[in-house]
Amino acid sequence: MCVATAGKVIEVRDDATALVDFDGNRVSAMTGLVKVSEGDYVLVHAGCVIQVLDEAEATSLNDLMREIEGL
Amino acid sequence: MPIDFNEIKEYLKEYDGPAMTLMEVCGSHTAAIAKYGIKAMLSDKIRLVSGPGCPVCVTPTAYVDRLIELALKENTRVVTFGDMIRVPGSSRSLGEARGDGAKVSMVYSPADTLKLAAKDPDTTFVFAAVGFETTTPAYALMLERMEKENIKNVQLLTALKTMPAVIDWLLGGGADIDGFIAPGHVSVITGSSAFIPAAEKYGLPFCVSGFRGEEILAAIYGLVKSRGQGRVLNFYPSAVTSVGSAEARNIVGRYFRPAAAAWRGLGEVPGSGLLLKDEYSEWDAGSAGLTEDVKKNSLCRCGEILSGKADPSDCPLFGKTCTPGKPMGACMVSQEGSCYHSYLNRVSDSEDSGDKR
Amino acid sequence: MKITMEHGSGGRATGELIKEIFEKSFDSDVLSEMEDSAVVPGAGRLAVTTDSFVVTPLEYPGGDIGRLCVCGTVNDLLMRGAVPMYLTCGFILQEGADVDTLKRVVRSMAATAKEAGIKIVAGDTKVIEGGTSAAEEAGMFINTAGVGFVPDSADVSSSKCAAGDAVIVSGNLGDHHAAILSCRMEIENTIKSDNAPLNGMVSALMDSGANVHAMRDITRGGLATVLKELAEASGVRIEIDEEKIPVDSQVQGFCGLLGLDPLYMGNEGKMAVIVDTADAERALAAIRKSPYGEDAVLIGRVTEGETGGTGRKGSLILNTAVGGHRILDILQGEGLPRIC
Questions:
Q1: Cβ <8 Å between A25 and C253
Q2: Can you give the residue range of the structural domain that contains C233?
Q3: Which of B190, B237, C231, C257 has the fewest other C-beta atoms within 10 Å?
Q4: CA of B52: which chain A residue's CA is closest?
Q5: Mean pLDDT lowest among B244-253, B305-314, B330-339, C1-10
Q6: C126, part of any domain
Q7: pLDDT class of B332 with cuts at 50, 70, 90
């Protein structure tokens, strides 16, 4: 059950939801699992923010791949 | 130095080492593999099989039948994701039952049910709560709101499943798998470390993968290179950590307890599911005991196909009695199922079929 | 004012409804004759089509059921190379439907008919009781029939695709379907339906002298369904390139959110054209002259077909951006949003 897309947090609200933008589509998502701030890129699944995406981590994939090469 | 994906693509296309069978256990991975045409990019020595990764497809017929019963009941309406609508029960699907007056609404987020319920307090809204670890936290958050706002006209009919137990069960049952493309978003919640016990116990690699074409190819590459090693690789570090989300596990633990679960085509697997705790039974629409799974046709081999033990073409019903228009079992119902994709390759002519032995 | 059962009785109330709303807006001398059927000049080959419109909501971003029913019918006639001439429309109204909505829908129909250069020549009105489960949300259904003249020179058919042909699509995929679903699922965006009559585009294409073999408007089922049907009708293999397929970024974002595939989403103002490859550039230039075809693009090619497992020839292949390929079938099921 994995359809989750990455969007940008436009607005954090008081009722444990945030307005998230996906290329112009705006959806309200529950933020009970993860602390979010405006401007964060987040993964949303079934109307729920499940993760704040860490772009810095994405580049470490290169290191992992190099590790595999050593096998 | 950045990764040269062309080298990876070439390696996988030319691979001539020992034959490998790799399984993915996530409906979205099945879909992505089909969407990007990944199978056509691999050598014949690398075989991709789809495991029981679509929680909708592994829901037994008794669950669908109960949903239909509720949807036909007076003052009751079933609310669901789109996926559930076409899955056949013992005689028909929820979608087909609409013609007989079954009341069904489709939503994007389970929390939308609460909006519907507020507008119509005389109707009981039952949400078809299916899912793996990725989705269960959304239900828990919904229950938290229902508790806080004392909502009386919403219930859940649950068919919740967890991954590690079924993987262990599959491998323990002798499935011939050399590596797993580990689910990307389930891992966000469970953490990649959830797969370490199975990796070490059976001595084979798990690689957590993202959903883009390049990410899946990278994961397949990682698995082929790690053949025979009982380790877990995380190739989706922007979203997945080793430990996952404690917050999500806590809130799920508040409302749900582990239980055995019935997997369509596979049978009952201990500890692979979740049920609402007794103290929340007023919000349960009768989820326990929905284990009966009526095989539409006794010749259906979905169970073996889902375990990677048989190919769609091994099933006598495939392409004749069982087609996407008239699915007999889980593997053909879903646009992510093995049988659905094999059928596509069969119906259309193609020099290199995507379905390899 | 609300529609009542009396409006459907065929008596005074019916007459008044037709006079006040339909006759006034359609302003057609033929319609005003109010005969049982319309006899109109005709000669040569006639293209005839019928369609029914049951969309909800009745009014959506970019259009409404009135505009839709004209576009849908006109485009069906155009795809055979016909010049659309006449339209009939039968309305089925639900008791309780809002007459102001009806007025807006009918005015929109009239405006679209004018744009498409067609006359609305006959109509019918029926009223049904409120509370019928299928009609519950709608309030209004429209059935149309369309008639057009097919010039002798036009020879366009699904079975005429040939190896070596070019595959063109007139613009972004999925807009109409995304606009409707956005309304129904209350997802906020600025996606508009692309419902449009394609007569200007088609006449420019036919006048350009390009050797057009087949044209199909891309409606329910999406581009994949249309191309697969063309491939089977002609017994050929059609190959399209993912990187070239035009999709608006907001529609793409919408699809990502709901797990939908733009290749299977419907439009109401786009067409797929199969044309002799030598004429591809000329065809593109002609289509791009239309305001509805500015984003027209070449997306693939036709090659020889082979017989498949079921004994039928005809296949559709997508070359994916990452370097793989994917076999596409017609739409199975309803194309419902996925979570899985």
A1: yes
A2: 158-328
A3: B237
A4: A1
A5: C1-10
A6: yes
A7: confident
Q: Could you tell me if residue B47 is inside a domain?
A: no
Is the pLDDT at C332 greater than 90, yes or no? no
Chain C segment 44-83 residues within 8 A of A by beta carbon are none
For B324, the domain range is 302-347
Domain for residue B252, yes or no? yes
How confident is the model over B290-302, as a mean pLDDT? 85
> C31: domain CATH number?
3.30.1330.10
Nearest Cβ partner for B137 among A48, A53, A69? A48
Percent of chain C with pLDDT over 70: 88
Domain assignment of residue B91, yes or no:
yes
Is C338 among the domain residues?
no
Residues of A with CB under 8 A from a CB of B: 1-4, 16, 27, 29-30, 32-34, 43, 45-48, 50-51, 53-55, 57-58, 60-62, 64-65, 68-69, 71
Per-residue confidence band for B348, with pLDDT thresholds at 50, 70 and 90: very low
Instruction: State the total domains in chain B.
Output: 2
C229 touches chain B (CB under 8 A): no
The CATH number of residue B69's host domain is 3.40.50.11740
Task: List domains and CATH numbers for chain A.
Answer: 5-69 (2.30.30.140)
Across the range C62-82, mean pLDDT stands at: 93
CATH number for the domain that contains residue C199 = 3.90.650.10
pLDDT mean over C287-293: 97
Tell me if B218 is assigned to some domain: no
Which residues 251-270 on chain C approach chain A with CB closer than 8 angstroms?
252-254, 256-259
More confident residue, B57 or B246: B246
Q: What is the mean pLDDT of residues C268-284?
A: 97
Of residues A49, A47, A52, the one with CA closest to residue A31: A49
Please report residues of A whose CB lies closer than 8 A to that of B27.
1-2
Comparing A18-22, B139-143, B218-222, B352-356, the range with the smallest average pLDDT is B352-356
